[in-house]
Fold:
Amino acid sequence: MFLSCVSNGGPGFAYGIYPLEKTNIVGDITKECTCFPFMTYEDFKAIDERQQAIYEADDRSEEDLFYDGLLTIGTEGCTYDTCIVVTGKYRGRLVSTDLNEEGPFYFIYDDNFLDWYERWLDDFIAGIDMGSFGGSVAGSQKELRVRFHNENNPDTKRAILVSLGRFPQIEPETITLWEDVCKSEFSSGIYYAALWELINKHAPNTADIMQEFFYSTDEKRDVCIKLLRLAAKNGVDIEPFIPKLLEIMPKLTDLFSNAVWAIQQTSYNKYATFLPFLDLPDNNRKITIFWVPQNTPDRNSEDFVSRIPPFFNDGDINIVRQAILSLMEIKDDRVPPLVDEAYKRFPEFEPLRKNYYRRTWGKNE
Structure:
């Protein structure tokens, strides 16, 4: 009714609403929608297995089960679209989708298109941050706080906390809610959202809460490490965290890069701080360290070059590639023979070798 009687497309969230002639039909619009609210990765995988069975039976098939019953009415950019359900139990609801189909689609919280569209108008007029509108929950700050306490679904609770951060002026009661969540026993996804908002809103007790996280459970410590860099960029003094962070870094795997990014925001961003981590056993962390010293203000290129030759003998092509990249634009006579020998072992390095000579020595080899 909106598209046919009010406006055939036009202004709206992100890039606006498509006119009818540009709406996109990916799946079978006559079939019941396969998606539903709060899908898990297991639910999504089950649909994908059915999809793969169709492709195996007929590799020319254009069926796309993920988009059955969905009409694409707008885009957020890249592969992210907004669709409206036109069949089945959830007809009229809006869904945020991803054409890459790498994870569950999620239902937008509004009950119908009109509620969603009018909320977009109200928020836009009120000057509320539109960056996270797509996944936000409707309501005033007071209404959202009440809903948070009455809500049982953890995904919705997290969305409420993030939605509270969209308001241009944050009420003291909202700050208190975020702080209380951080001190509670909620799941990591929920108190991550609360701490993230405290950091971005420059709340006065943020540094103390982060200290409590850092020396609390492993789960809360990990959340703190993920947010240290963001905190530093928002004016939080993270220097006191770094000595302990350096102590535990050899034990960090997935969060190793987060720790490095945090250290780079402090006075510990020195050549000598990072070089010892080149001796770590796994290659992913070595690759991270290869490029880090290049951004330290006190790096001595001669010392750095002296540390790199052993890595040219590594059996992992990615390690050898990173070794070459780390020495780009460092003029040292010891390096060209290493690059040439690496090229003999890995002929696919030909473009990299040419780029090394061009950028470092100003000539083609």
DSSP finds 17 helices and four strands in the chain. The first strand starts at residue 70 and ends at 77. The chain has a mean pLDDT of 92. The first helix runs from residue 2 to 6.
